[in-house]
Amino acid sequence: MHIDLDTFFVSVEQVLNPELKGKPVVVGGRPDRRGVVASASYEARASGLHAGMPLSTASRLCPQATFIEGSFPKYRDASQKFMAILADFSPFLEPVGLDEAYLDATGFESIYGSMGQMAVAIKQRIKDELRLCASVGIASCKVVAKVASELSKPDGLLEVAAGEESSFLAPLSIAKLPGIGKKTERILRGLGINTIGELSIMPLSALKSHFGAFGELMYRFANGIDDRKVEPPSAAKSISRETTFGKDTKDRSLLKATLRYLSERVGADLRQRSKQARCVTLKLRYADFTTITRSHTLRLTSDTDQTIFDTGLKLLNKALAQEKQPVRLIGIGVSNLTEPGRQLDMLDSSTQRLEQLNRAIDRIRQKYGFTAIQTGRTLLLKDIFPETEGGYTLHTPSLSR
Ligand code: DCP
Ligand code: CA
C-alpha cells in the first residue's frame, strides 16, 4: 500500500480552525512575503494554485484565499501520529517525508477480510483520530501503488489487481510516473512519447542511450515492474538547516548570527542522533539565485556547535570575499556521519570541554526551550525573528524546525 495524506499542511490547519474547511487555503506564507506555496486546498487548486508556485502569483490568481504561514512542529506532531497508526497495521512500514508511507501489508489483510477492507480500516482510523483524509493505493509493487494513491485523490482508495499493472499505467500521462520531472517530461514529449504505455514499448536501448541508467529504471516502472522492498528508513546521511532572508542581505553580523543559529540546530540534531560528523558544508544563494556549496573536511570528527559554526564561518568569509552580491539564502549542513568513539586529541582537552558544554546546553534547552540559553551571537536575531518555544521562527515557518 501507498498511503498519502490529502493536502497535508492545509488539512492540519483546517482541523485546528474548522472555519477554513471548504475554502481556498494556502500554507507557505503571507501573500506579500516572498516564498512559495507549500500546500493548497482543492478550492485554491481550482484557481490554478499548486505547490512550489510563488506566493505573489498565488495571491494574484486567488486573492480570496486565506494565506497561512504555518508551523512545522504542528505538522511533525500530526505526522508522528499518522505513522504510529500505520505501524499498528503492519510492522513493515517505510515513511517517506511527513505525510506519505509505504506499508507492506502482505499477510495482515486476512485480519480485515481483504486488502481493500484493510485500507478502509486504515483510512477510518486516520479520520477518527486525526480528522485527516488519506488516499491509499494498493498494488503488487511500490511504483504502481504510488501512482494509484495519487490517482485516487482526494479521500481515495484504488486497488490494482496483480497482473494488471501495465494495463493500469498504459493510458496515463508520463507526468504521472514517479521520477519523471519537468525536464524528462519535455524530452520524452519531444520524442513523441506522451503516455506511460508509449514509454513502455520504447526499445530499452533507446531509453538507455537518452537517459543512461535512469532510462532503464523508467522502462521498468513504465511496465509496472519494481522490485524495491518496503524498507524501514535508513539512518540519515546528512543533516542540514537553511533559511531564506526576508530581504537579501550583505550584513555580516546578520549572516554570522543566522549561521550560528543554524549551526546550533544542526549540532543539536546531530547529538540527538548520537552521531559525529566529518564534513561541514555551507550553502549560499545570492540575489540572482546563483547557488553555491562549499565543503570542508574536518581533521577529527566532531558534534559540537562550535566546530560546525567555526568551519561554516571560514567557508562563509572565503565565499563573501569572492562575491559582491547580497545573500538570499544561507544554509549549513554536516555529512559523512560516523558513530561516536572517535579518536581523542591527546594534546587538546578543549574539545572535551566543548562537548560537555554542548551536552549541558542541550539539557537546558530540552527543559526550557531553545532560546532559554543563547550565545551572544544569536541574541542579535531576537530583534529580527519571532521567538517561539522551539526557537526562532525563520522565514518559512511551515518548514522551520
Ligand atoms: N510540501 C512543501 N513544498 C512542496 C511540496 C510539499 O512544503 N513543494 C509540503 C506541504 C505538503 C506536504 O509537504 O502539505 C506533503 O506534500 P504533498 O506533495 O503530498 O502535497 P499535499 O499533501 O499538500 O497535497 P496532496 O493532496 O496532493 O498530497
Ligand atoms: Ca499529501
Order of H and E elements: EHEEHHEHEEHHEHEHHHHHEHEEHEHHEE
Helix fraction bin: 40-55%
Provide the CATH superfamily of the largest domain: DNA polymerase, Y-family, little finger domain
N-to-C CA distance: 29 Å
- The number of domains is 3
Give the averaged pLDDT, no decimals: 93
Neighbour order of strands in the largest sheet: 5-6-1-7-8
CATH architecture of the largest domain: 2-Layer Sandwich
Biggest sheet descriptor: 5 strands, mixed
The poorly predicted ranges are none
Computed over alpha carbons, the radius of gyration is 24 Å
Total count of strands:
14
Q: Which geometry do the CA atoms define?
A: globular
Count of alpha and pi helical runs? 16
At the first level of CATH, the class of the largest domain is: Alpha Beta
Bound compounds, each kind once, are: 2'-deoxycytidine-5'-triphosphate, calcium ion
| Percent of residues in β-strands | 15-25%
CATH topology description of the largest domain: Dna Ligase, domain 1
SS-derived structural category: alpha+beta
How do the helices and strands line up, and which of them pair or pack?
Layout: E1 2-5, H1 8-16, E2 25-27, E3 39-40, H2 42-45, H3 55-61, E4 66-68, H4 72-89, E5 93-96, E6 100-103, H5 109-112, H6 115-130, E7 134-138, H7 142-152, E8 157-159, H8 165-169, H9 182-190, H10 196-200, H11 204-211, H12 213-222, E9 238-249, H13 252-272, E10 276-286, E11 291-302, H14 305-321, E12 327-338, H15 350-368, H16 376-379, E13 387-388, E14 391-392
Helix pairs in contact: 4-6, 11-12, 13-14
The structure holds 2'-deoxycytidine-5'-triphosphate and calcium ion.
